Amino acid sequence: MSFALHSALSSAAGLGVHASIPSPPISSFQVGPFTIHYYALCIIAGIIVATFMTNNRLTKRGAERWVVVDICIIAVPLAIIAARIFHVLTHPGFYFGPGANTWNPFQPGSVWAIWEGGIAIFGALIGGGIGAWLGCRWTGVRFSTFADALAPGLILAQAFGRFGNYFNHELFGLPTNLPWGLEIESTNAAFPAGLAPGTLFHPTFLYEVIWNTLGCLFLLWLGRRLRLQWGKLFAVYLIWYGAGRAVWESIRIDPSEIYFGLRTNVWAALAAVVLGIVILFVQTRRHTGFESSAYQPGRQPKKADVESQDDQSEYVDLSAPEAGGADSEAAATSTAAAG
């Protein structure tokens, strides 16, 4: 999942030298009769990393070890399905119309050909959010606690996923002369007509990898610094990711539906920012104290397999309200269902 910078002679400028990012020569490999796509491996790696991080954060908060797996059993499939549906619905020209292989699962370009790329994080957030809510209802974990525990791992998983776009040679940005321009072969179906072979493009996958990785570090720091709970850390995730995605999306040149002059995913990114601000504002006003437990009222396991909470500033003993806050433990418990 790494890329190499290299130097090449610029044929148009004599002996000029430029640096650029080459696209990977392959996007898949064979294992017996099976084709393994790097895109899928990147997605799977992100899911694994997010699961381990979320499990670690939840157990430090007081939840049973690996309860996250019970939640992910529901959330991950719904996230993938909704992500694909969102992509198909926002790119109808790819899958519907004369000559399209819309419903043929064995042909490229069908709605089932997820290995070619084409899953939307905003669809994943919707489907995964519904699945996580159902999983939390099933396990008794407080939904806001799970969301806050998930936030850093989720944005890091998205960084892993962007490497899948790199291997697929897709979703690049406008042409650029910057030294970190991305090389895309002129035979690529997404290569813009009229541009000269060798044109470099903004590596939007790399921009988002960097932005998301910084976001993960920021969320981890902020969670420890301010002890954000009640879904507030997840709200910050929505604001951070949405703000960055709106910028990167605006310089991408892959086809997209346009509404009022903006790409569909720009609108979705702005909606994420607004939703994050609303959640942060509402939850800050509603909950001035800490969550009393990682579990919903009455759902605390009798024998929880819990990690030591020593030296975990983000996961201090929350049985008492925040110093100077208006919520008592009883008040926090009475409002827990709304969290």
From TrEMBL:
Keywords, comma-separated and alphabetical: Cell membrane, Membrane, Transferase, Transmembrane, Transmembrane helix
Pathway terms, separated by semicolons: Protein modification; lipoprotein biosynthesis (diacylglyceryl transfer)
Residue numbers spanned by region Disordered: 292-339
Example GO molecular function: transferase activity
KW Transmembrane (keyword) present: yes
Top-level taxon of origin: Bacteria
Enzyme class name: transferase
Membrane topology, from the record: Multi-pass membrane protein
Subcellular location(s) of the protein: Cell membrane
Parts of the chain that traverse the membrane: 35-54, 66-89, 109-134, 146-164, 205-223, 230-248, 260-282
EC number: 2.5.1.145
InterPro entries per record: Lgt (IPR001640)
Residues holding a 1,2-diacyl-sn-glycero-3-phospho-(1'-sn-glycerol): 162
Chain intervals with Low complexity compositional bias: 319-339
Stated family: Belongs to the Lgt family.
Protein name, per record: Phosphatidylglycerol--prolipoprotein diacylglyceryl transferase
Organism this protein belongs to: Microbacterium panaciterrae
Name of the coding gene: lgt_1
